[in-house]
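Human: I would love a firmer grasp of how sequence relates to backbone shape in proteins. Take your time, and here it is.
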Amino acid sequence: MGETDHTRAPANTAPNNSIPPDQSAAAGGKNQPAGAAPVPAKAVSRARRFAAGAGRLVTLVLLTVLVFAALVLIIVPKAAGSQTYTVLTKSMVPKYPPGTFLVVRPTPFSQLQYGDVITFQLESGKPAVESHRIVGFGSSQTGEKTLITKGDNNSVNDANPVRKLQVRGKLFYAVPYVGFVANALGNQDRGLWVSIGAAILIGYGVLLIIRNLRSMPRRPTEGEAAGTPAPGEETAGEETA
C-alpha cells in the first residue's frame, strides 16, 4: 500500500471561498481569455440559427433567379416556338430600352394590328432585323398589303414599308436588361450555363442541409436520461488504496 501525503491548513487560517481562476474560466465558458466577459450560450445558439437561416434564404433566392432565367430564356420560347432578340438601340425607349430581351412569336400576317410591336428584316432574306411598332397600313403598286412602322422614340416613320415576307413575328413578352445576359451566354450555350448553375446551387443546398443536420443537438439515450453514464465516462468517487 502506497503512502499518501496529507497536508493540513494552519488553524488560524480562514477558509478560502473564492473560485480558482481555472474554475472561474470554466464557469464562464470554454477557452475564454482572462478578464473577458463570458458569451451566453443562448447568444451563440441564436447567432448560429441566424447564420443558417441566412444561408437558406440566399440559396432560395439564387434558385428562384435560376428558375426564372431558365423559364424566360429557354423553356417558354422553345415551348411557344418563338425566337429571341435583344434591343440594341434607343428607338423604342422608354418602354423597351437597350438590353431588353424580346421573345417574338410567329403570327399570321393577317392578324397583325395597329399598335403591335413586330420584329422584321430590314431587307428580305438578310439577318439584320429591327423591332418597331405598327402605326399604319399601306399597299404596294401590285396591291400587296404592307405595314407602316415606327420606333416609339423616333419622330418619323420608318422609310420603307414592311412586306409580309420580312416579318419574323409579333412581340410575345419582354424582360428588361436580360438581353445583355442572353447575349453574353450565346444562343447555343444558354442551356449549358443554366444546367451548370443548377448543379452548383443544388450541391450547395445539399451541403447546407447536411451542415444543419450535423449541428442539431443530440438527443440523450435512455441510459443517459436515467442517469447511467455513457460508455467511456467515469463516475466521481473515492480512490481506494
User: Anything to note?
Assistant: The first helix runs from residue 21 to 28. The helical segments are 21-28, 41-79, 178-185, 190-215, 222-225. Residues 1-7, 21-30, 235-241 have pLDDT under 50 and may be disordered. The beta strands are 83-86, 101-105, 117-121, 129-139, 145-150, 167-175.
